Amino acid sequence: MRxxxxxxxxxxxxxxxxxxQSRAAITLFLGLVLNHVGGMSTLAAxxxxxxxxxxxxxxxxxxxxxxxxxxxxxxxxxxxxxYEMTPIPGGELVVVTVDQTTGFKRLSHxxxxxxxxMGNYEVTWGEYEPYAALYSVFSDFREYRFRDWDRLSDVDAxxxxxxxxxSQYHFQGASKRLPVVGVTQFAAxxxxxxxxxxxxxxxxxxxxxxxEYACRAGTTTQFSWGDDMLRVNTYAVVFSAGRVGPxxxxxxxxxxxxxxDMHGNLAEWVLDGYSRDGIPxxxxxxxxxxxxxxxxxxxxxVRGGWWESDAHACRSAARMSSTYYWSDLDPSDPVSPWWHNxxxxxxxxxxxxxxxxxxxxxxxxxVWNPDCDELAKAVLECEKLGRGAIGRVDPNLPELVQRxxxxxxxx
Length: 411
What we know:
Number of domains: 1
Helix content: 10-25%
CATH architecture: Alpha-Beta Complex
Radius of gyration: 21 Å
Strand content: 15-25%
Oligomer: single chain
Order of helices and strands: EHHEEEEEEEEHHHHHEHEEEEHHEH
Strand order of the largest sheet: 5-6-9-14
CATH topology: paralog of FGE (formylglycine-generating enzyme)
């Protein structure tokens, strides 16, 4: 496997609350930058993280054409926060559709799935905050005009999430083990791009087919544990009297692949736009053919159900699509490309995946960057209005950081 091109990498992020201190954000930024640049010489040799040449004597592993895929854990550079990835074997997903007239299930087609790694858990606030905390730093960089800002068409451009409108609504601050909620699909894709540039590994959202395949974990029943709805609370966080938000990740039992909270807790973004035709046919396992690529901001697919769903809405096959109503409470114009703030959005999050084989640049652009004119215009307009920021991480960063420190900025 080849490491992704890391000659350049643009990073930007946003503060989470108005209480964030610039000095703290600057300190975090410096740690992230220096860890990234200082580790560049070793990343190429580590491009096969999660692969070993011989089958482990114990623990979970997946045999692949490139070696034995094993679980791995990585600490986000500059933090003490780590994330865990587990291998998912290649295989076939049997796609079953329901006839809208008769209500009967019928076999639609099978879809080939290539091996990949998937996050054991939904992305947490602890993992998301380092990305978002960089917003104020790059706002300062723009203010002091260190460089010309790259447009979103740049293959490495990463846009910033802005401040939360209501941190209580998003359950932010209660626990770093709570999953991040209320993020748009674009924000989730930008987070995965940021993490990829930071670590030198290609992270992304899963295709809808990959998500369902991983959720089912080899089963064809309603849930990954079978058809018994009485067991739902053992594996899933679903609606119950008095519940006002999601649980910390990993509080229920995992499925057979070792994945937690695939049913309930949060509905999870995938790459696909919504279509009544469902998951597209693909016989080669290539991501380009596996995704129903969106052509507009809404509707897009979330899978798995959320903490206010009943058990039926958390089935392995259950789907939900986004709407413009999810931003009804947003007072801004244009509405934030990074945050939703109404309806089921308070139960929407995401988890990341990594392909076994490196993806080509044209596919990386599709999984990370704005994919329709409406979205691109909103992001650029927010940046012009000071509601976003864009930054680059490249070999010249040490000099850039020194110039920033020399100003003695303290706010």
